[in-house]
Amino acid sequence: MLDPTRNDTQADLSAFWMPFTPNARFKAAPLMIAGAELNHYTLEDGRKVLDGSAALWCVNAGHGRSKIVEAIRSQCETLDFVSCFSNGHEPAFRLASRLAERAPGQLDHVFFANSGSEAVDTAMKIALAYHHARGEAGRFRFVGRERAYHGVGFGGLSVGGLGSNRKQFGPLLPGVCHLPHTHDLERNAFSRGQPQHGVELADRLESIIAVNDASTIAAVIVEPVTGAGGLLPPPVGYLERLREICDRHGLLLIFDEVITGFGRLGSTFASTHFGVTPDMIVCAKGLTNAAVPMGAVIVDDRIHDAIMSAAPAGPELLHGYTYSGHPLACAAALATLDVHQEEGLNDRAKSLAEQLEKQVHGLRGKPHIRDIRNMGVLAAVELEPRPGEVGARGIECRRHALDEGVLIRAAGDILLLSPPLTFTDDDMSVLVSSLGRALDRVA
Ligand SMILES: Cc1ncc(COP(=O)(O)O)c(C=O)c1O
Predict the structure, then answer these.
(1) Domain 23-61+344-440 class, CATH top level
(2) Whether the model pTM is above 0.90
(3) Which residues touch 30 (CB under 8 Å, ≥6 apart)?
(4) Burial of 167 (0-12, 13-18, 19+ CB in 10 A)
(5) Which 3 state secondary structure label does DSSP give 283?
(6) Helix (H) and strand (E) counts for the chain?
(7) Predicted pLDDT of residue 3
(8) Is there a contact between 157 and 171 (Cβ–Cβ < 8 Å)?
(9) 413-425: b or e for each residue (b if 16 or more CB lie within 10 Å)?
(10) Domain 68-342, what fold?
(11) Beta strand residue intervals within 244-398, DSSP E
């Protein structure tokens, strides 16, 4: 029980165990957000600041969009909730069809979850079920990659490649291998878009196959552009090579597009942008513009059909969440797709991407910068860590940027920019110039 002698504010701050947050530090100097409108947040003290991160790579269509709000409200009045376990509702089927239409290749079937983490674990289970259905249950291994972030479920954590996230949680899934990351400052520093060097890093998949035998490997999962691990665009030719090796050995290829989906690279999915079609796409975040939590896995016909035909009676896949296909999430996602279409956000993203590239590389020469990189409407400025205090410069710069009127994210000493696609040209200039002033103040 909370101490009743505490005042209300103290009690409120102590009860909420905040996710991925240094709780003690936050609660000593809380940053409270009171509201949001399009490209700005309003802080509790009334100050308006630019949202340089689209929340957490989520709010691609800007905050508080009335069309999305109205769709959720109206859906709630009509059908607040029905479980999709042996019940259907029209928006879920309509949304699945619209996602399948936009996905590349034969990715024609959609399984709904409630978050990116759940969607990643769902995709991994579908991969296992696919091989099981084809009499290849011995394919149980997954291949992830160093510096990858695939959420916090035991599956996603196992294929993820951020040691700090994994170290508290024991052995995780057995049989997971990791490809090397593609961050190569010596050869690729200050790349614009895809770095030129590193295609050969995909060949490490061949070594993993040689050691474990292809017949034990279910799937390879990568983010087309590594996000939370510090924004690492794929080297030229890298994704193509992964695809080719997977095909040669019967491995499924899963793209985790939780960040890259819904316009970040100027198309609905990064797969289309790169011209590489995976066997499954995992998405979340921008899918509903974050107005209602939702994740989804978009699955190739042949995977779906193999699982369907292996179990003609009963549920073909013993998997699902109470809220899979939640009506409010479906309504939010359908309205989000409408907003993207009506406002041409993919085209807008292309133009913002050009501005972001030009402006963010203009910061070169500011103190402590060791790399600047960008891809679509995503950019990173990487600082030399202060000796003995890794991450301190990142925290400091984020604080200075807030003083300058922009809220950005820092992954250690890497500053990440991913504004909403509704940013104006002026917003983009303000974001980058404010970051520049913040950088000038970092000791
Ligand atoms: C690439 C990627 N996959 C999965 C996730 C997990 O999504 P969620 O936090 O919705 O579970 C994230 C979250 O940032 C992500 O960036």
Answers:
(1) alpha beta
(2) yes
(3) 13
(4) exposed
(5) strand
(6) 17, 15
(7) 64
(8) no
(9) bbbbbbbbbbbee
(10) Aspartate Aminotransferase; domain 2 (3.40.640)
(11) 252-256, 280-283, 295-300, 369-374, 379-383
What are the pLDDT digits (tens) for 330-388? 999 999 999 999 999 999 999 999 999 999 999 999 999 999 999 999 999 999 999 99
- Give the start-to-end residue ranges of the domains of the chain: 23-61+344-440, 68-342
Say yes or no: CB of residue 418 within 6 Å of ligand 1.
Answer: no
- According to DSSP, the β-strands at 33-37 and 217-222 are unpaired
Cα of 117 to ligand 1 centre, how many Å?
A: 6
Q: Is the CB of 328 inside a 6 Å radius of any atom of ligand 1?
A: no
Of 18, 117, 122, 280, best ligand 1 pocket probe by most atoms within 8 Å of the beta carbon:
117
Q: Is the CB of 120 under 6 A from ligand 1?
A: yes
Q: Which two tokens stand for residue 96?
A: 């699945």
- Alpha-carbon radius of gyration of the chain: 22
- Helix locations, 343-390, DSSP H: 345-361
CA-based nearest residue to 412, from 204, 173, 147, 145:
147
Summarised one tens digit per residue, pLDDT across range 173-193 is: 999 999 999 999 999 999 999
CA–CA separation, 60 vs 377, rounded Å?
10
Q: 77 CA to middle of ligand 1, Å?
A: 30
Tell me the two tokens of residue 143.
């291949």
CA distances from 124 to 141, 281, 391 (A): 10, 11, 32
The CB of 258 under 6 Å from ligand 1? The reply is: yes
Residue 404 CA to residue 102 CA, distance in Å, equals 39
